[in-house]
Specification:
Layout lengths: L1 E2 L4 E5 L2 E5 L6 E6 L5 E3 L4 E6 L2 E6 L3
Antiparallel strand pairs: 1-2, 2-3, 3-4, 5-6, 6-7
Length: 60
């Protein structure tokens, strides 16, 4: 699990699920993206797939 301070992110297989920690509801799924870290300074989740760096801004 990763957290940007407002949301929780869980990775299952090749998908990332976004959770609201207050309500406990899953609010989104990012298919085909499995990050391994969160850069707090930029607010981006990052992962490597097939030798390519993939990033996704959390919208914090």
């Amino acid at each position: 699990m990763l957290s940007d301070g407002r949301r929780l992110y869980s990775v299952q297989g090749s998908a990332t699920h976004v959770w609201d920690p207050v309500t406990g509801h899953r609010t989104a799924t990012i298919a085909g993206f499995a990050p391994t870290c969160l850069h707090r300074g930029t607010g981006e989740l990052a992962g490597i797939a097939d030798g390519v760096l993939l990033r996704w801004r959390t919208g914090r």
